[in-house]
């Protein structure tokens, strides 16, 4: 049964990030193309588009299938590693406009050596976010901490590598627990929200028992000279954390890649001059 909705995109398209099949800018909303599908059609058994994240020249789409599983598709520029190693391998010999369609993203944490856990076989992708040339993916596992994966450029500490610029591995696990003081090791860490500006990132996390005592925290890293991470004197550490009194996070949209980006818990705004929307046929 085909999906009753489609995805359209418009704007800048120099690296094929609109997934319209070419690299021409789109002055009006145009149907996107998923690999193996006709323009405007979604892959088989898609029930919903849970999230879309836009970087400078790359796009992530999180699709929810009818069986409840989630899959990441991506389009555009992956030259800085922001779409993982498998994406570059897929488009290497596929033609000039190979990056101009959405392709399934394969992020094998076990094969990449960044995480070896039997629970990975049951993990679910819950959130995606995109910075300028960086991407973030949140995995949830049964009875385990959520995992935040970062990949791509690290020019402004985007990967949260602890002061070592540029992670050696293409996929990097962000060590969120290191930023939370006085934590209880018997409590699970859950990621409630994730958002990224061009060069800074904010995560809203919960630390606690499923139905018992818990605390919530806002963690941030990256560039902060315009106050994106709050009133921090000098260069911020790897993480800047503050305990949140309630789950909601103030919402403000970034103005420009070098402007006054502020914290946000809403859908991550794309820094490039394009947009995407879902549309239902009349």
Automatic annotation (TrEMBL):
Q: Which Pfam families match?
A: RCC1_2
| InterPro entries for the chain | RCC1/BLIP-II, Reg_chr_condens, Ub-ligase/GTPase-reg
| SUPFAM superfamilies the UniProt entry points to | RCC1/BLIP-II (SSF50985)
List all Low complexity biased stretches. Answer: 241-275
Repeat in keyword set: yes
Region named Disordered: 220-282
- Can you say where the RCC repeats lie in this chain? 5-65
Keywords in alphabetical order: Repeat
Tell whether Cell membrane is among the UniProt keywords. no
Q: Which domain of life is it from?
A: Eukaryota
Mind telling me what this protein is named? Answer: Regulator of chromosome condensation 1/beta-lactamase-inhibitor protein II
Q: What is the species listed in this Swiss-Prot or TrEMBL entry?
A: Pycnoporus cinnabarinus (Cinnabar-red polypore)
What's the source species' lineage? Eukaryota, Fungi, Dikarya, Basidiomycota, Agaricomycotina
């Amino acid at each position: 049964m085909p999906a009753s909705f489609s995805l359209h995109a418009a704007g800048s398209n120099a690296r094929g990030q609109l997934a319209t099949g070419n690299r021409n800018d789109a002055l009006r909303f145009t149907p996107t193309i998923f690999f193996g599908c006709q323009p405007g059609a979604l892959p088989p058994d898609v029930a919903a588009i849970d999230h879309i994240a836009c970087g400078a020249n790359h796009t992530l789409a999180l699709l929810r299938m009818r069986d409840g599983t989630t899959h990441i598709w991506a389009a555009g520029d992956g030259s800085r590693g922001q779409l993982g190693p498998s994406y570059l391998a897929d488009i290497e010999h596929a033609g000039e406009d190979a990056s101009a369609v959405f392709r399934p993203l394969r992020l094998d944490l076990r094969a990449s050596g960044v995480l070896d856990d039997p629970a990975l076989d049951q993990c679910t992708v819950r959130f995606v976010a995109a910075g300028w040339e960086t991407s973030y993916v949140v995995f949830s596992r049964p009875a385990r901490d959520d995992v935040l994966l970062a990949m791509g450029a690290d020019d402004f500490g985007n990967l949260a590598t602890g002061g070592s610029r540029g992670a050696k591995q293409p996929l990097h696990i962000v060590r969120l627990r290191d930023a939370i003081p006085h934590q209880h090791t018997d409590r699970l860490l859950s990621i409630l929200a994730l958002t990224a500006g061009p060069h800074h990132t904010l995560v809203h996390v919960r630390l606690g028992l499923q139905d018992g005592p818990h605390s919530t925290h806002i963690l941030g890293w990256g560039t902060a000279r315009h106050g994106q991470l709050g009133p921090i004197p000098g260069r911020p550490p790897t993480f800047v954390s503050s305990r949140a009194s309630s789950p909601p996070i103030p919402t403000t949209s970034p103005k420009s890649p070098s402007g006054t980006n502020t914290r946000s818990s809403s859908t991550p705004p794309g820094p490039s001059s394009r947009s995407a929307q879902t549309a239902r046929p009349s």
